[in-house]
Amino acid sequence: LVGSEMCIRDRDMPGFSVRLLVSGAPEDFTVTLTPSEGVTPFTSTLEVSVPSTAEPGNYSLWIEVWSGEMLLDSAELLVRVPSFQPPSMSITHLSCPERVFVNEGFTISGEFYYSSAQETLGRLQIFMNETLTAHAEFYFAGSATTPFSSHLIAPSEPGTLRIDADLQYYDPIEGEWVLSDRESCYIEVAMP
User: CA distances (Å), 31 to each of 17, 47, 65, 122, in order?
Assistant: First the structure.
């Protein structure tokens, strides 16, 4: 999201009724001017939302000031989409059994969604009571929903077992893994 303010002040034309328009924005950008009309001088706030699937590069938007059918002025606004854009990732479903026996094998399953403009390294980590027990790394690009499952072994002591599924992506600019989403479920571990 890019925010900017433009103040329309024309010393020769105070009290002019004008409207602001934005041209040159790609179709998938969302552009909002608030307010888009007013009497000079006035201030308008411009918001530009760039989708996560936008190609990296520089985009020129033009803010135009119109009075009736006459273009009074225009200004260029450069929107820079960086070479790495964080993807949109979320765990859309996580399913765990309600109850298992000590030392019993069981399976958790779920699915996650991703959307990315460029190839990105991701990983899914499964934790049992905050201990990493399963891990998968993968490259992804575009948009898709992907199923996952993991076969685990219940602890040897009865109690409540917490399962966490962490979905992360690697940010090459910062050189670190970033948590995108976490879902949890609880399982009762009982004696047979």
Answer: 22, 6, 16, 30
Distances (CA, A) of 111 to 26, 64, 92, 167, 183: 32, 45, 6, 11, 11
For the chain, residues with pLDDT lower than 70 are 1-13
As a residue count, the chain comes to 192
Query: Which pLDDT score, from 0 to 100, does residue 39 have?
Result: 87
Give the pLDDT confidence score for residue 54 in this predicted structure. Answer: 80
What is the structure's pLDDT at 1?
39
CB 78, CB 169: distance < 8 Å: no
Residue 6: burial class (beta carbons within 10 Å; 0-12, 13-18, 19+): middle
Distance CA 153, CA 191 (A): 14
Contact indicator for 91, 112 with CB cutoff of 8 Å: yes
Strand ranges (DSSP E) for the chain? 2-8, 17-23, 30-34, 37-39, 42-49, 57-67, 70-81, 88-95, 99-101, 105-128, 131-153, 159-171, 176-190
